[in-house]
């Protein structure tokens, strides 16, 4: 039996970092996806292996090791040593462990337990570590795919489980990325209702090709907050106010105001020091053809987004340094999808 699920990448249009401290944020799912396929490899055996294949490598652990941690890592009960697993594989091990526990609690005897080995394969067209939500999309697709083998979950349950899985690598996650990857469309987080009336946004995404580490950037912002409490609280209020105005701009079909707000948001991100010369350079190169632009995601590298008029799109490659990748993003409305193949 095979359970296949896919989830979209995301962009944060407004509110990254501040959302970790309780502000609203506007996010959109975009048309790049990760697909996770989970297959039962051996049935009714207590010697199965969990194997994970991804573009970052292959990882294997025994699934039914009754001993506490020796040389392998058990996912049974709560004996797993997640911290000893390379971070990119941790959410998958966590999810399998959780679902095994849950399945066991539903069967009378563990020996009747019907699952053997599991193989999980991840195929992704989402660039990794550049602010497009690759890790959240993986967690969502994995939660949907793995749970398909055990017990079908609702979207709400998938979201809850994937946030817990993401916390194994990034404990401070706001959950906003996972929310938009689950439901798709554009949302004003913490609501997951899709914002209906979105005008045709021509969003350009440009990748600085500098990988970033979300956890480090969030810790840096925490330090900024500690040292500048009053200003940080003002910035949070400003961000919430800005988002209210963005919603009005969208209702009024006012792309000029929307673009200006993006650039205003970038000023707040500069102030909390998650920008750098490369990102500033890219933003400034695109300024003559865009209505507004900003970092998307954690910053310190990763991607910027720019609102570009249709007839200016072909001017983009000439404005950006040759080593930067760029593409135009369409909003994904499906969110996570899954199916079972017998
Ligand atoms: O760069 P990404 O895709 O990991 O996005 C991080 C967004 C933050 O607001 C910085 C963190 C969060 O959990 O919301």
| Bound compounds | (3R)-3-hydroxy-3-methyl-5-(phosphonooxy)pentanoic acid
Which series of helices and strands comes N to C? EEEEHEHHHEEHHHHEEHEE
Beta-strand percent range: 25-35%
Helix content percent band: 25-40%
Q: Estimate the mean pLDDT confidence.
A: 89
Report how far apart the termini are.
5 Å
The outline comes out as globular
Low-confidence stretches: 67-74, 109-113
The radius of gyration is: 21 Å
How many helical stretches?
9
Largest sheet: 7 strands, mixed
Total strand count, please?
A: 11
Structural class: alpha+beta
Structure description:
With 342 residues, the protein is an alpha+beta fold. It contains nine helices and eleven strands. The chain has helices at residues 90-106, 134-150, 155-167, 176-183, 214-227, 229-251, 255-271, 277-286, 316-319; strands at 2-14, 25-43, 49-54, 57-62, 115-124, 186-189, 203-207, 290-296, 303-308, 325-329, 337-341. Bound molecules: (3R)-3-hydroxy-3-methyl-5-(phosphonooxy)pentanoic acid. Residues 12, 16-17, 19-20, 131, 133, 173-174, 176-177, 214, 218, 297-298, 302 line the site of (3R)-3-hydroxy-3-methyl-5-(phosphonooxy)pentanoic acid.
